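User: I'm putting together notes for a lab meeting next week and I want to include a structural view of one of the chains we've been expressing. I don't have a solved structure, so I'd like a prediction I can at least talk through. The sequence is below, exactly as it appears in our construct file.
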Amino acid sequence: MIEVNLELIKKFIPVVMMDMKEPFEIDAMAYTVFQETKRSSSFPKRMVEIEPAKVSFAIEYAIWYDYDIQHLYDLEHVWVYVGHDGAVQKVEASFHGKYLNMVNLETGEANLWEETHPVVYAQPGKHALVPDKRVIPMIPDWKESCMEKAGLDGVLVQDMFEMEIHTDEELQSMTESYIKGVYGFVPSMEFRPFLLEEDKLMTWEELKESIPGRVNRQIEVIREYFNE
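Assistant: Thanks for the context. Below is the predicted structure for the 228-residue chain, given as structure tokens.
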């Protein structure tokens, strides 16, 4: 059994390729280790399956952004499955509420940097993850969502935070106008790697506890923007 510690978790952190004009950086990344099949706490519709014959453990990386180009905050995921020999066996990542295999379109193998870090591409502004930037133009409204459709969904309130994050019609309208006016952009489709700062890595429990505060701080920023 491989001992999973913080250094090992850092070893498999995904490298997220982001559009050169992307207005939002990753504000935090959380991890959860799976050594047996279990439902994800941060992606409740997802059962993370561990095949003991092939996989020693899997690490779920939950990637937090204060903004999506169409709504307040975003949470994306990468799952890295590690074999008994310590090598990456498989990589999956979230895509608009579902997930995709992160494989090289030519070889069918995971794209890796320095043998252990999965390389994934973030859809500009929306942050859904794909294995290759060539997939992005296949996504409906991928460009429009960053421009005329920016801010469309206002404040997003997930069920797990509905008691701590509150919105109303006025705030929804302000948020839509704020995101579109401040962050709307034309994607370049040229990409750069995002390198996570160490103080932004934490457990899922730590990130979950901080989320209402993170969202409510941005709500205050938006209110102050319109009240100046």
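A couple of points you could mention at the meeting. The first strand starts at residue 15 and ends at 19. The longest helix spans residues 204-227.

User: Perfect, that's what I needed.
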